Amino acid sequence: MADDGHRYTADLVWIGNHGDGTAHYERYGREYSVCMRGKPDLAGSADAAFRGEATRHNPEDLLLAAITGCHLLSYLALCARSRICVLAYSDHAEAVMETTPDGGGRFTSATLHPRVVIRDGAQRERALALHDKAHAHCFIASSCNFPIRHVATVEVADHGPVADALSGHAT
């Protein structure tokens, strides 16, 4: 049986018309709302560098969040299937976007820095290696046309700063 694919929908509404629409480039609002049935709305805007509101998520933030979130979920599934008990996971993800003189641009790279705490030290190397497989399984990473790297750290719960790692605080 062929996979028909998974379907996703999003409804976007521009809420940045402050009276004159886009009559003036400098004055129209970049705010929008994205609605997905049964989920909280997302308040979006352009990046502040592009006249957006810094307090709202921008498409660049959301792309990076999708990349790191997808890697997390792929990694946790692989660890669970491999009987590796992950106790904590955090990531500091970074991405680089370059603009072009004509006003366009593109992402050129993303780097994930996942920090994982596992229960069993004998599984550390396997847990580290599963990041490569998670990258290969990540639907979002597989859909991007720029390199996505990961620089992972795997710690064992009975070694190192476990209390900080479990609470999400890096030392």
3D structure, described in words:
- There is one protein chain.
- A three-stranded antiparallel sheet has the order 1-2-3, with no helix packed on it. It has a three-stranded mixed sheet with strand order 4-7-9.
- The protein has 171 residues and is an alpha/beta fold.
- It starts with 10 loop residues before the first strand and ends with a helix.
- Strand 5 and strand 6 form a beta hairpin.
- It is built from four helices and nine strands, in the order E-E-E-H-E-E-E-E-H-H-E-E-H.
- The C terminus is likely disordered.
- Helix 1 crosses helix 2.
DSSP summary: helix tally? 4
- Structural class by secondary-structure content: alpha/beta
**Topology order in helix (H) and strand (E) letters:** EEEHEEEEHHEEH
Helical amount:
25-40%
Largest sheet: 3 strands, antiparallel
Low-pLDDT segments: 161-171
Q: How far do the termini sit from each other?
A: 50 Å
Strand order in the sheet with the most strands:
1-2-3
Question: C-alpha Rg, in Å?
Answer: 20 Å
Overall form: elongated
Count of individual beta strands? 9
